[in-house]
Amino acid sequence: MYAEDTIVAPATPPGKGAVAIVRLSGGLAMRIARALWHPLGSAPPLPRRLGLGEIRDPQTGAVVDRAMCVMMPAPASLTGEDVVELHCHGGPYIVRRVVGLTIAAGARMAEPGEFSRRAFLNGRIDLTEAEAVADLINVRSESALQQALAQLNGALAQRVGQLRSGVVAIRAHLEAEIDFADEGLNLPRRKEIAADLARLIDDVALLHDSFRRGRLARDGARAAIVGKPNVGKSSVLNLLLGADRAIVTAFPGTTRDVIEESVTLGPWPLVLQDTAGVREAGDEVERIGIGRALGSATEADLLIAVFDASRPFEDDDARVVELCRERAGIALLNKSDLPAVLSPTELLDRGLGMPVLSFSALSAAGTPGLRDELGRALEALAAAGPADGVAISRERHREALAQALEALGNARSSALSGMPPEIVAVDAAAASQALGALTGEVGGEDVLDAVFREFCIGK
Ligand SMILES: Nc1nc2c(ncn2[C@@H]2O[C@H](COP(=O)(O)OP(=O)(O)OP(=O)(O)O)[C@@H](O)[C@H]2O)c(=O)[nH]1
Ligand SMILES: [Mg+2]
Question: N or C terminus of the chain with fewer C-beta within 10 Å?
């Protein structure tokens, strides 16, 4: 990839629409635009102002489209380079034709994420802001939107910057020691530095632990619906979805595989998983399905455990109670429209540690209560992390913070055990490096490749 190339790509999705935007960035962008686009009326438009004109094929002079054009000169543009947007009529043929003309005039097709990558390389945005752009486009809920917007506004970058300044202050302290002390750190200084490191470790750990909330806001929590066969798990899924997604029959062992669907609960996205009924017996297919059900239950953030109020408690129910031990979630005592045999008290006596809700998937009785309980459970999951709401949402962020934590921990033990200040400084430098990698201040091409790979062409 050569930054001096002028790149072009449609900025709008393929297909028909009212308007399609073809975007150019690079040193030739303005020249290419002037060769193709001719303003209607007298003067060419001012920078950053839309003007109406015609796009013409420079070879033949034939009009290709009537289109608006906006020129955004460097450096105050999306990418930090000269940027031009041609707002054409939104038909796939027109877009192909206009892109073709720009390429004939010297542009080349952009690679996925190349506009954002250039914005990053030219210092317009940091890596976390670039990731926020990708997140914004994939948003499916209010919580994901707010999280992506905060990150786009630099909330995460600022927090990481603060942590990094903390490390820099400690390093400065150490440098002074290295310059002026000839034998190791003196005791009061050492304790002071260790205390500073301990405070910093707490702050980094808080941000590290916000991953769960960040992921929850971005991707949603997963709730597995578990229970023995025929208790009404698939009926509960269908009820929450408001659609006949899973097959429901009177035969135990109907659901064989994990069925996954997304819903939103207030601001939160929630992925519901209907699973095979857990029991000892069954054929090979059912046993595989039960294996998957148990896997889902282990991985899920929440469990919705379903029991049949019209049937006595059995060994298979006991397995479900066991599955719910120490887990967040809610238990449904389903089929409460039928004469009751199993009571909430008995479930609690049998060792179930979750709130129990009397429910009927048939009559929908208890649905508002279930939604409330799930909402509360999601809020509780989301409560971890810094109080100001800054949260990390990607494995990449978590790894960088884990590395910083490890390095700071090492620095602290070195300081406490009276190691020479140079040794402490090496660990502090590693922590600073890890934090810098998070925002992209430090790092190689491989990090950038990994971040921008998930972008589509035109972003
Ligand atoms: N009376 C009554 N019947 C229900 C209720 N919920 C589900 N059923 C019935 O119970 C039977 C089993 O329902 P499913 O939703 O398929 O149960 P499941 O737990 O998914 O069963 P498996 O997939 O076999 O594990 C069906 O005949 C449903 O119509 C309820 O609240 N009341
Ligand atoms: Mg089922």
Answer: N
CATH class of 7-124: alpha beta
What is the spatial distance between Cα 372 and Cα 357, in angstroms, rounded to a whole number?
11
Cα separation of 62 and 97, whole Å? 12
Contacts 24+ apart (CB under 8 A), 278-282: 278/226, 278/227, 278/228, 278/229, 278/316, 278/319, 278/320, 278/323, 279/228, 279/229, 279/252, 279/253, 279/316, 280/315, 280/316, 282/253
Per-residue pLDDT at 456 exceeds 90: no
Which residues make up the environment of ion ligand 2, defined by Cβ < 5 Å? Answer: 233-234, 254-255
CB 341 within 8 A of CB 311: yes
pLDDT of residue 2: 46
Average pLDDT over residues 339-357: 95
Q: What pLDDT is stored for residue 204 in this prediction? A: 96
| 219 vs 338: which has the higher pLDDT | 338
Superfamily of domain 130-210+390-439: tRNA modification GTPase MnmE domain 2 (1.20.120.430)
Res 181: pLDDT: 62
3-state secondary structure of 39: strand
CA 396 – ligand 1 centroid, Å: 42
Ligand closest in space to the Cα of 358 = 1
- pLDDT, residue 457, reads 74
Neighbouring C-beta atoms of residue 281, cutoff 10 Å: 11
- Mean pLDDT over the full length of the chain: 91
> How far apart are the CA of 227 and the centre of ligand 2, in A?
9
Is the CB of 433 inside a 6 Å radius of any atom of ligand 1?
Answer: no
- What's the token pair of residue 130? 């670039």
Q: Are strands 329-334 and 259-265 parallel, antiparallel or unpaired?
A: unpaired
What topology is assigned to 224-382 in CATH?
Answer: Rossmann fold (3.40.50)
Counting from 1 in the atom list of ligand 1, the atom nearest the Cα of 306 is 19
Eight-class DSSP state of 457: T
Handedness of CA 121, 127, 132, 134 (dihedral sign): positive
- Comparing CA positions, the residue from 5, 8, 18, 14 lying closest to residue 101 is 8
